[in-house]
Amino acid sequence: MAFKGLTDSLHKVTDRIEDYSLSMAEYYKLRLFKSVMKGSISLVNLLVYGSLFLFVLLFLSLGAAFWLASFFENVYAGFLLIGAFYGIILIFMFIFGRKIIERKMLHKFSGVLYDDDDLDPKTLVEEEIGEYEQTIKEEALQKADISK
Question: How many CB atoms lie within 10 A of CB 78?
């Protein structure tokens, strides 16, 4: 009779371990899907807003180049000045901008991948262990009541 109770307990333990591993696999699948979708949405937003920004910048640059051309009475001077302006911005970005861009990108994408509302796997495991210990205590109390 004692062996039957032990085998039943072992079957319950194996069933719970199986359920736990399946639920953890599903959790990680969902988390991966969520992270991939957030990254994809961020990429699409970057492409849409970036392309619109480039069109606006293109037309503003052309307008400024033609305005400078009429000011200096030479078309080449206006376009060369706008080109030089963008060249200076590019040099400053190479010198000072790398760290800033890297820091902002890491911060942005770490926020995309790791949400505050996601539970830590360690916390999930601790909760599962607590529930399992509670179940074992309840079964032990039931067995003690039955044996009396």
Answer: 20
